[in-house]
Description:
The chain is an alpha/beta fold and about 270 residues long. It has helices at about 20-25, 40-55, 85-110, 120-125, 130-140, 150-155, 170-180, 200-205, 220-230, 260-274, and strands at about 1-5, 30-35, 55-60, 60-70, 70-80, 185-190, 210-215, 235-240, 260. It is globular, with a radius of gyration of 18 Å. Zinc ion binds near residues 8, 13, 38 and 133.
Amino acid sequence: MAADLHLHTNRSDGTETPQRVLELAKAAGLSTIALTDHDTTEALAVAAPLAAPLGIELIAGIEMSSSIGEVEVHVLGFFMDTAHEGLRRHLEEQQARRVERVKEMVRRLNRQGLLITAEEVFALSGQGTVGRPHVARALLNRGYITTTVEAFDRYIGSAKHPAFVPGSPLPPERIIRLIREADGIPVLAHPIYLKDDTLIPTFVRQGLVGLEVYHSGHSPEHVRRYERMARELSLLMTGGSDYHGESKEGLPVGTVRLADEHVDALKRWKTAHA
Ligand code: AMP
Ligand code: ZN
Ligand code: FE
Ligand code: FE
């Protein structure tokens, strides 16, 4: 049996309900999953009572935004206490920040002559955490682009693009500490997207516990590189598909499968630090 510890639902920028993601995990033959929506744990509350009847073990998960200057850093959290007051307060602030961020992205897009409204974007995110994929979808709906990837490549992908705004002004150090305070395990998500491995030892000094070695964006060579780095820095290894349903096609639930030994190692760490 295997695990997929990086899955998004419609509580952030995925397209499927928490229940549907559980069913897809069951159909894919997974034994353990974590729902890791951006800056929210809402899917967990919905999915928790539905997992056991399906024979799926559900781990508390989240993917939290942070930044160093204009560089996005995503930190995954596992096994945290989702009722932790500091965490709850932070997530509420993040929801508000993300609304303001969309308004700022829309202003910048408007200046580029792309006339979408923030309301259109919020209509697409519905009850979930609003993010760049919703902005991309709004641009697509208006015919300014022909694929959502184009939105990232031309307008919102990174600091070199005219309408890019980071998901959170807080540095990864703060997020790592917050996850630790909530008794969770902080893990650096998809390290290849960071494009700077020299930051990783710094994160470890700040309390990072794991590295997402296995990810749908990692080539076999990247996996070998991060396996080596995890061993050298005594980091736990996690992995997942980064499934988003129809908003990121061709990456079904279970695309990336984490061996049970790594899930066991996460549990041992949690027990030892409880
Ligand atoms: P946000 O949390 O609002 O910054 O959005 C992050 C999400 O945007 C990621 O989880 C992906 O779903 C999507 N994303 C980020 N970069 C790209 C890209 N270059 N192409 C397509 N989707 C992307
Ligand atoms: Zn996403
Ligand atoms: Fe991410
Ligand atoms: Fe993700």
